[in-house]
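Reproducibility note. Readers wishing to regenerate the assembly model reported in the main text can use the exact inputs given here. Chain order matters: entities are listed in the order in which they were concatenated for prediction.
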Amino acid sequence: MSGRVITITSGKGGVGKTTTTANLAMSLASLEQRVVAIDADIGLRNLDLMMGLENRIVYDLVDVVEGRCKLKQAMVKHKDYPALALIPASQVRDKTAISPQDMITVANELKHAHDFVLIDSPAGIEWGFKNAVAPADEVLVVTNPEVSAVRDADRIIGLLEAEERPVPVRLIVNRIKLGMVRRGDMLSVEDVVSLLSIKLIGVVPDDEIIIKSSNEGVAATGRPKQAFEDIARRLMGEKVPFMNLDSNGGVLERFRKLFGGG
Amino acid sequence: MSNIVDRFFSRKDQRSAKTAMERLRFVLVTDRSQLSPEKLREMQAEIIEVIKKYCRIDESAVEMKLELRERENYLVADIPLAKSVEQPHEEPGRIAFSLQTSNSSSKLEEEEEDSE
Ligand SMILES: Nc1ncnc2c1ncn2[C@@H]1O[C@H](COP(=O)(O)OP(=O)(O)OP(=O)(O)O)[C@@H](O)[C@H]1O
Ligand SMILES: [Mg+2]
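Running the prediction on these inputs yields the following structure tokens for the assembly.
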């Protein structure tokens, strides 16, 4: 059976695409899936760092496309998960070195031997984004509970819907801070979903753990890990209930509860 | 007591998330339809002119707006007809219509596969 190509994109920069791609890839691999993650952010390579593989890179995606190496040679095997590999972005070239057709060719070749091909898209709606979504069987749109991120997500979703061959699009709300949501100072997941009207596949809390794990180039731990693993399972078709972020109210939250605040 | 707590957490002002929702609802519908508020007003004026050729309407009460329904955009109009002089016993009529703007591509096969 052929694998699925899933592109992670967002419109707005810095919302957590690379963090999500890396952690989803590692979660899927730990669930015994054969995974290859492609860094499509040409010129701004980062997925290698998030996956702790920056020291093992020999060839990159542009080398593959321009025929300097075989696809296999550009695949960097993950040290902890033998069934996970990374195809790094080129750090020196720019995104025009690759075309949507190149991405389709590469993804099609990878699909056969893998369960999941994850593509980390660059921000924006231009060339790099078009490359990243060209081979997608499915798209995950990452957003933050913030006005500009939601607006940009809406724009991306509109573009994806207008494609000749629209693919399923699902939403990840990243960096939710429950304390702020409760105080009414952050859009809730429900708010974001109702504005964007697409299916939700996951919610990831804002957590320092993400910064620590990316410092070390390893998978997140704790609640973020759980959140990514839940998304991985949903991608695999399991019905996983949405995490109850409620149990972790911050100090102020607990204080407020103590006084009977809503 | 709860008053003090509420003040401590600045419960009094309009919550910023609520403001964000209102602003986003407005901006998304405008983005999606590529119809600015100004263009909308212009269009409303033109439509009223056309309708006035055929019936008398209560111009001051006309309301036309863009509305989000799921991922579809609707142009929704409420156009109350003026009371007719010739038939004083009749209730005032009302034209109401809604048009779907063409922004979202016409996908026929839709929805299905439950995800989560
Ligand atoms: N859930 C989270 N909690 C805390 N910090 C987060 C979370 N998600 C992402 N971050 C932080 O946000 C920053 C941006 O994340 P990331 O690089 O994954 O975004 P991106 O969408 O890939 O950015 P770009 O558009 O530049 O490619 C990083 O410093 C990351 O550690
Ligand atoms: Mg990135």
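We highlight two features of this model. The radius of gyration of chain A is 18 Å. Strands of chain A lie at 4-9, 35-39, 76-77, 84-87, 116-120, 138-143, 169-176, 199-205.
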